[in-house]
Amino acid sequence: MTEGRVLVVEDEPMVAEVVERYLRRDGYDVEIVHDGKAALSEFQTFAPDLVVLDLMLPKIDGREVCRQIRARGQTPVIMLTARGEEIDKLVGLELGADDYVTKPFSPRELVARVKAVLRRSGKQDGSAESDLLRFDDLQLSGSKRTVENKNGPVQLTAREFDLLHYLASHPGHVFSRPQLMDEVWDYEFAGDASTVTVHMRRLRSKVELDPSRPRHLKTVWGVGYKFEP
Ligand code: CA
């Protein structure tokens, strides 16, 4: 398990590379993109726990990226700005950023901020371990590893629980089978994505009130699966 998934959006390769190196060294899973458009698509597929977002970006600027991330949920954002850029802390906070670092910054300082923001948001290890996830007809406890639907407690195997919990922790995000193998099975994907298919079928039969017409565990044809909240 990593410390968490961090999406770094930065168009200056040197800065991106340094940030990536420091975050990886501290155990974070890191993806780098260099413009705002790529940031939004990677936000969907990588499902980060936190976004480090440069303000001045090609294609779509950091303000707009931040707004769109906010519109999609509570994922924390740390803004990077150059000294003298026409933005101050207030503007950053108005956009919904959680913290704010001015360039040039020390990479150690940024990593410390990432840790602090993740701790505050309660997602430090990316597994949201103690959170209760509630949906109208379904409830999961990450710490107790229990699931209840309208009919009462649902008995799941450890792996089924991990899969459900992972999907439900990232509502609306689409994951491919290899991504789920990687995240939930904890070892390198060796090519047998049908394992995911089998687990998903069992999960539906246990969790969904009508497994033939799943309410939460949706197939996205040609891509993979998502949890519909
Ligand atoms: Ca920039």
Descriptive account of the structure:
This protein has 229 residues and is α/β, with parallel strands linked by helices. It folds into 2 domains: 5-120, Rossmann fold; 132-227, Arc Repressor Mutant, subunit A (Orthogonal Bundle), CATH 1.10.10.10. It has 8 helices and 12 strands. The strands form 3 sheets. Strands 2-1-3-4-5 form a 5-stranded parallel sheet, with helices on both faces. Strand 8 and strand 9 (152-154) form a beta hairpin. Helix 1 crosses helix 5 (107-121), helix 2 packs parallel to helix 3 and helix 6 crosses helix 8. The chain is elongated. The relative contact order is 0.11. The site of calcium ion (CA) has 5 residues, from loops.
Question: Which runs of at least 5 residues are low in confidence (pLDDT < 50)?
Answer: 124-130
Strand arrangement in the largest pleated sheet: 2-1-3-4-5
What fold name goes in the CATH topology slot of the largest domain?
Rossmann fold
Radius of gyration: 19 Å
Tally the helices.
8
Number of E strands: 12
Secondary-structure element series: EHEHEHEHEHEEEEHEHHEE
Helix content: 25-40%
Overall mean pLDDT stands at 85
Distance between the termini: 24 Å
| Named CATH architecture of the largest domain | 3-Layer(aba) Sandwich
Quaternary state of this entry equals single chain
Name given to the CATH homologous superfamily of the largest domain: Response regulator
Cofactors and ligands present?
calcium ion
What's the domain count?
Answer: 2
Work out the strand percent.
15-25%
Largest sheet: 5 strands, parallel
Q: What is the general shape? A: elongated
User: What class would the helix/strand composition place it in?
Assistant: alpha/beta
CATH classification, class level of the largest domain: Alpha Beta
